[in-house]
Design a protein that fits this description.
Layout lengths: L10 E9 L5 E7 L6 H18 L5 H9 L4 E10 L1 H15 L5 H4 L1
Antiparallel strand pairs: 1-2, 1-3
Helix pairs in contact: 1-2
Length: 109
């Protein structure tokens, strides 16, 4: 059986999570699901962030904020859809450098 080549040209969603109480932001990236719904993909990703914050002891900015303020204070929205893994990661890094979101742990350093 021939193995399929892994695709690198899939669409990726660059999203922003905003703490509605403080205005602090997080910028992230996720692969757009095959269903094609960016909203559904982003909502699933937000739930993964919440689950990690509540079940793990990560001291990342977003995890600490979710534990402190509660998941209901966080809203997710789409910034861009980018085709290709490398291009999406480059764009995410560029947006983090430009927008300087407080909840991105690596951006805060």
């Amino acid at each position: 059986m021939k193995t399929r080549k892994r695709r690198t040209d899939r669409n990726h969603v660059i999203y922003q999570i905003v703490n509605q109480r403080t205005g602090a932001k997080y910028i992230g990236l996720t692969v757009l699901s095959f269903s094609g719904s960016a909203e559904r993909t982003m909502n699933r990703r937000l739930q993964k962030h919440v689950q990690r914050a509540l079940t793990e002891t990560k001291e990342w900015g977003l995890c600490r904020a979710i534990r402190k303020y509660g998941q209901e204070k966080f809203m997710i929205s789409k910034l861009e859809i980018v085709r290709g893994k490398a291009e999406a990661h480059q764009r995410e890094v560029s947006l983090i450098k430009t927008l300087k979101p407080k909840l991105n742990t690596h951006a805060a350093k």
